[in-house]
Amino acid sequence: MTKLNKELPYEMRQVFYEYHKRKQRWAIICAHRRSGKTTATLNDIILRSCDPGRPDARYAFIAPYFSQAKDVAWSLLKQYSQPLWGSEPNETELRVDFVNGARVRLYGADNPDRLRGLGFDGVVCDEFADWRSGVWDEVVRPTLLDREGFATFIGTPKGKNEFWDVYERARDNPEWYRVMLRGSETHLIPLEEMRHLKESMSEDAYNQEIECSWEASLKGAYYADEISNAIGESRIGRVPVDRTIKVNTAWDLGYSDSTAIWFVQAVGKERRLIDYYEASGVGFDHYARVLKDKRYVYDKHFFPHDIAAHMIGMDRSRLETLRALGIEATIVPQHDVYDGINAVRKLLQSCYIDAVRCERGLEALKAYRKEWDDKLKVWRDKPLHDWASHGADALRYFATGFMETHPDIWGNLKGKYRQLGSQSWQGV
Asked: Into how many domains does the chain fold?
């Protein structure tokens, strides 16, 4: 790119050679821990900052959280770019200005408003599996329009979330560079260390973090045992829709993010999860059309208690809006979230799930997990709010709403989770 490259302290690992040579505008790297993906992608934008054909180039490295960007990438950025500095790095803005006018800056996806209106020649989306839903499509992607900038997505699997969606979108697509770096194949981790990791980590954790498995159960997942049992008992597969049986829906309403809807048939003691739908950035009229197009015969539509609240600036309530669209809402009373989680656990012990129509919702259930306190190194006593929350919360509204008509079952569940709260997530 330029003779200045010879002055940089970066020693390229062979597994990233093709990445640095790529011609595609889009790239995704799914890599095991300690593979060097952060170092490689930072140096990629540092090297591109030397391109004389892009005066005043602007590049961004975006982590899920600004604090994470500072902890993980700031010292590396300064270390590898030092020969190109035009001035001392800006420690407040986490920004490095180069002698040729180019600039690299770190951001956090937790503050998307800070990125609005900016323009970049290229971005790195770090640990994309942990990003808030919608930040890429609604905020970051538009920053690449004017400069026709590129993007690289990097991370390690955490279930089939938006990172997996991007990885699958890149499959056999000539506009994308895609690579999977598994620990057993790169040989970047010494054999003795690999053996120690395998002995000290759970099988799921090892498969996820080292072997880049999309299927491994996530640490802290609430429904790992129930989903595993359902798979073992062949209750996840193709579930036929009986058109003579009415369908219940259960909704989690998103305002700045996704709205999720489960479609459930109750047949005797069976609960059949026959369908699932999720979208964002659209109104109730859109969802009303979805329900109509599916041509189910509907029974109850379960909504969270806050559906009854009036929104500022609206001429009529959301309940009135739904009623005008032909959707009569059944409001689920406010309940303790842990009682609701137990209700879902009870439901999952015997329900049947269509693996095709409910694929996205099923992945949300697999990925729904406790929040991790990285400072104290313990699980917090509350769910992590991420992309998986929408599908998981929607099913919780069905489980609690439907069970309200069965007080004998519901009564046995209330408070049970609290009694088990001191145990590890595997034992709950």
From this structure: 2
Range of the domain at 49: 3-209
Q: Are 183 and 210 in contact (CB under 8 A)?
A: yes
Residue 265 reports pLDDT greater than 90: yes
**Looking at the domain assignment, is residue 91 inside a domain?**
yes
pLDDT digits (tens, 9 = 90+) for 206-263: 999 999 998 776 778 899 889 989 999 999 999 999 999 999 999 999 866 789 999 9
pLDDT in tens, 326-380: 999 999 999 899 999 999 999 999 899 999 999 999 999 998 988 877 666 677 7
Look at residues 154, 177, 209 and tell me which one is the last residue of a structural domain.
209
The CATH code of the domain that includes 46 is 3.40.50.300
Question: Which of 156, 174, 209 is where one domain is finished?
Answer: 209
How large is the C-alpha radius of gyration of the chain? 24
Do 46 and 95 belong together in one domain? yes
